[in-house]
Write a structure and sequence with these properties.
single chain; alpha/beta; Rossmann fold; 7 helices; globular
Length: 195
Amino acid sequence: MSRKKEIGLFFGSFNPIHIGHLILANYIIEHTSMNELWFIVSPQNPFKKNQSLLPEIHRFAMVNRSIEDDFRFRASNIEFSLPKPSYTSDTLAHLTEKYPDYKFSLIMGEDNLTNLHKWKNADFLVTNYDVYVYPRPNAKPGKYHTAPRIHILNAPLIEISASFIRNAIKEKKDVSWFLPPNGWKYIDEMGFYKK
């Protein structure tokens, strides 16, 4: 019996996607058994207010342009057609049914792991899926840190935030080095985050 293709799911608003996301994605592909990493662009995070969130179609386009032709990465708009707000457990159930030959794993920051007990169907998630966790500044251990399918990665600590980039653009600062070239080009051409 052949081994299932392993897909890592990196959920986020990607508002905008930046080099920190891509550094982590690259690290995860190179240091785990995953074959591909899918950037799941979330239309609406139940824990985040909708301030300064670009329309999902633009964030999806930015991710697509930013990963270019890297065969290891894929942009996914799967949540756009699912009920809102989006819950990770619902998306995973949908993907598992749609792609029965794939093995899906979750990718999240340690701050999300700390608050995982607040998520819908958290026990189901950590029991049925591997969860790969990258370090975040000042994250505290939570209920699930020692669960058997939690894998804490020794990835570099990336302290670039999308809110920092949005604020810098608003203040007319040059942030081109913080973003993948095609992502930056799209933001600049469209005039995003200037107001």
